[in-house]
């Protein structure tokens, strides 16, 4: 069914369509095979239907073949795999000694890639998957024989590099390292992967190899620079996409509003997504709905099913997310690929390159937080010559509301650069220890990472490294340090059924306090569970199935201390600062809220330990003398804080959930009315820093979002926050506008900038040796 008809079918009497953009179809351009591709490889590819490459594939492949680190950054389904496989297949067909290590961010993607590679009947190619599930004998076989090892950074970090002597035959002949979906490596996770890759390249060099890095990325700004940050070496980029596309109709949708007591209220974005998913599935339209939270994905799938009632199509809808057991996820992927499932509500776990082509439509339940993700998700739809349909439904928050009313901020803006900071001392210290344990560190190893020399010297003081004559650093600690690549803590929390012990899923330790505390209602695959007990020592939450007519929300208190100031902008009565802070937060209680009204039934106390975070924050202060006549100062600051957190993803590559905030009418360190916005990761992830660098654009969009909202007293589309630990009290919408206007005016006057020579405090003893 044509996209226009589908859009008409999705619309309601009230109308929610705010903008429709047509992405024109693109005809395929073909180019001859590069001369260096041997006949056997051409034939093998032609047998699978690939007659000639597209120019971007040939160009990227040739760069890599000639030994230049290369990143290919083009759209979804633009055949990036072929670009990195051409040199790999060529080496195999020539029976060359060169071997390839392919790294995907998820096991699922590596498995998918292995299946795709198996379709090419190229002589000499011996692929093998090696991940955490691979039995020892298979690993041994792969170490000796495979010339294409498909794996992930976690295996590299936890197994391959520590046991590099066993992997010596792979490392000494390592010719290519493929880094697939490399835009995923951003923030703190990106910093960990960057340092893991550098450890790999260092060991390969030690064994006499000098591999070329070939990376594939979603469309991104400055991809060569991003790859350079990951590897510490220069890189070339290929960004012009010459693959064909049927075009797409992209609709921006604002769920309809209705009035309660004169205040506009928005229909729930989750319900609207479920409604559209049900309508599309009923028409046989193969649809993927991207939902921002695991819990949301469960709700959308369950509601879409129930809307279809007795319709047999109801059985062809499912939810998909990380945290399910592996076998279950593989089954869902196969059902989706082979068309047994028509509609899937998923978290961004399915955003990456897993081959689920053949979809007609995608629904985005809310803006995914980054333009790169937006385009990646939109690109999932489209098969054959039929125009694809993509609908983004605005969530009830300031950023989404701003975007559906300012479509140019989506369609006419370059995709953001992905940021990571391998010199984050919290991340770097652990990897320096690991690297030294793998092979003594030389001065040259430290040269490419700013600040690494200082961190290494601190490790010497802590008696973890020893510096010998000649400038080498040796590992002298007793146990190999534990470094978690993903998440802040090494331990996830398992969720299991109390009566049977059956494992239901896992959750990261940081989120467990909020989501699986005793008494919490937890959703999984459409089923709801009540948490009987959370044992933090064991890392275990015990639950039983239950369907109460209420839900729960956790309440948190937060305390913030300024440790040091790096930079400050003085602008009359106003100042903006960037520096290190320590945030201590504690989930103290939870509320039970009646469904669907959200009315509070009661509040239950909890006895959970506080969680401490040392990180980087941006904060602004205002002289209270200049605010005379402002009635609700605390509410004004709080409202400005919420809205500014909501808009930060517009300028930094973060999610709202990556950042925290705190506002107070008189902070003990600044002694002034202050709003803090901080990175939610130890040591910072670069988001607060970007907020500081681009503060006028950030706060101007914040002001415009509040001013442009139709409500009178504030609503979730402007100043209310879904993650407020204080129940969204107090809040003042007019006061927030006064404050933000004051800041923006001050920024137009004289600005005195100061840079302080205070480097981040190094990780102290409390981080060693067990806690990282
Ligand atoms: Zn509002
Ligand atoms: Zn709040």
TrEMBL record:
Helicase ATP-binding domain mapped to chain residues: 61-238
Positions of the Helicase C-terminal domain: 276-426
InterPro entries cross-referenced by the UniProt entry: DEAD/DEAH_box_helicase_dom (IPR011545), Helicase_ATP-bd (IPR014001), Helicase_C-like (IPR001650), Helicase_put_actinobac (IPR022307), MZB (IPR018973), P-loop_NTPase (IPR027417)
Superkingdom of source: Bacteria
Molecular function GO terms recorded: helicase activity
Pfam family, one: Helicase_C
Keywords: ATP-binding, Helicase, Hydrolase, Nucleotide-binding
NCBIfam families recorded: DECH_helic
UniProt protein name: DEAD/DEAH box helicase
The species this protein was found in: Glycomyces endophyticus
């Amino acid at each position: 069914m044509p996209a226009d008809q589908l859009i008409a079918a999705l619309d309601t009497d009230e109308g929610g369509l705010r903008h429709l953009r047509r992405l024109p179809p693109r005809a395929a351009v073909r180019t001859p095979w590069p001369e260096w591709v041997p006949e056997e490889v051409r034939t093998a590819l032609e047998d699978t239907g690939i007659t000639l490459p597209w120019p971007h594939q040939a160009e990227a492949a040739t760069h890599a073949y000639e030994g230049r680190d290369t990143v290919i950054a083009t759209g979804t389904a633009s055949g990036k795999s072929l670009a990195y496989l051409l040199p790999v297949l060529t080496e195999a067909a020539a029976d060359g000694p060169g071997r390839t290590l392919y790294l995907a961010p998820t096991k699922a993607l590596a498995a998918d890639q292995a299946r795709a590679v198996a379709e090419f009947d190229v002589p000499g190619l011996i692929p093998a998957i090696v991940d955490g599930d691979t039995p020892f004998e298979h690993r041994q076989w792969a170490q000796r024989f495979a010339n294409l090892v498909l794996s992930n950074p976690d295996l590299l970090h936890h197994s391959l590099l520590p046991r590099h002597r066993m992997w010596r035959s792979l490392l000494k002949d390592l010719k290519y390292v493929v880094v697939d979906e490399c835009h995923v490596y951003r923030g703190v996770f990106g910093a960990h992967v960057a340092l893991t890759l550098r450890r790999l390249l260092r060991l390969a060099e030690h064994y006499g190899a000098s591999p070329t890095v070939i990376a594939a990325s979603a469309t991104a700004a400055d991809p060569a620079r991003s790859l350079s940050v990951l590897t510490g070496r220069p890189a070339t980029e290929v960004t012009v996409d010459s693959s064909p596309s049927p075009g797409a109709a992209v609709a921006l949708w604002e769920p309809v509003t209705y009035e309660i007591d004169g205040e506009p209220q928005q229909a729930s974005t989750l319900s609207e997504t479920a409604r559209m998913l049900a309508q599309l599935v009923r028409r046989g339209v193969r649809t993927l709905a991207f939902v921002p939270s695991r819990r949301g994905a469960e709700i959308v799938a369950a509601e879409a099913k129930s809307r279809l009632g007795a319709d047999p199509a109801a059985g062809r809808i499912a939810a998909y997310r990380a945290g399910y057991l592996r076998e279950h996820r593989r089954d869902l992927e196969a059902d989706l690929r082979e068309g047994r499932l028509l509609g899937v509500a998923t978290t961004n776990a399915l955003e990456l390159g897993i081959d689920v082509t053949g979809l007609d439509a995608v629904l985005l339940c809310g803006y995914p937080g980054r333009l790169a993700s937006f385009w990646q998700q939109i690109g999932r739809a489209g098969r054959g010559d039929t125009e694809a349909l993509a609908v983004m439904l605005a969530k009830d928050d300031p950023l989404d509301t701003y975007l559906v009313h300012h479509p140019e901020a989506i369609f006419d803006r370059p995709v953001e650069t992905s940021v990571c900071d391998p010199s984050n001392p919290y991340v770097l210290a652990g990897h320096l220890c690991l690297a030294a344990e793998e092979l003594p560190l030389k001065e040259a190893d430290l040269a490419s990472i700013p600040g690494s020399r200082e961190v290494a010297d601190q490790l010497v003081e802590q008696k973890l490294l020893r510096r010998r004559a000649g400038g080498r650093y040796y590992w002298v600690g007793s146990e190999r340090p534990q470094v978690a690549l993903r998440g802040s803590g090494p331990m996830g929390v398992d969720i299991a059924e109390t009566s049977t012990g059956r494992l239901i899923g896992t959750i990261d330790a940081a989120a467990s306090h909020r989501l699986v505390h005793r008494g919490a209602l937890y959703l999984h695959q459409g089923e709801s569970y009540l948490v009987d007990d959370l044992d933090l020592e064991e890392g275990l939450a015990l639950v039983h199935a239950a369907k109460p007519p209420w839900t729960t929300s956790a309440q948190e208190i937060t305390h913030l201390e300024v440790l040091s100031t790096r930079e400050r902008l003085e602008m009359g009565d106003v100042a903006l600062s960037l520096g290190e802070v320590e945030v201590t937060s504690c989930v103290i209680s939870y509320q039970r809220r009646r469904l669907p009204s959200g009315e509070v039934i009661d509040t239950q106390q909890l006895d959970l330990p506080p969680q401490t975070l040392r990180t980087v924050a941006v904060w602004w202060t205002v002289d209270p003398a200049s605010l005379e006549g402002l009635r609700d100062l605390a509410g004004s600051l709080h409202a400005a804080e919420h809205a500014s957190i909501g808009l930060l993803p517009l300028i930094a590559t973060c999610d709202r959930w990556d950042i925290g905030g705190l506002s107070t009418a008189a902070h003990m360190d600044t002694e002034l009315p202050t709003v803090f916005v901080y990175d939610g990761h130890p040591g910072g992830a670069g988001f607060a820093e970007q907020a500081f660098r681009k503060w006028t654009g950030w706060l101007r969009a914040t002001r415009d979002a509040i001013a442009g909202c139709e409500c009178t007293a504030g609503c979730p589309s402007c100043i209310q926050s879904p993650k407020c630990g204080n129940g969204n009290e107090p809040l003042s919408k007019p006061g927030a506008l006064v404050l933000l206007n004051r800041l923006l005016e001050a920024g137009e006057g004289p600005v005195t900038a100061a840079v302080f020579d205070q480097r981040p405090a190094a990780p102290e003893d409390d981080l060693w040796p067990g806690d990282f």
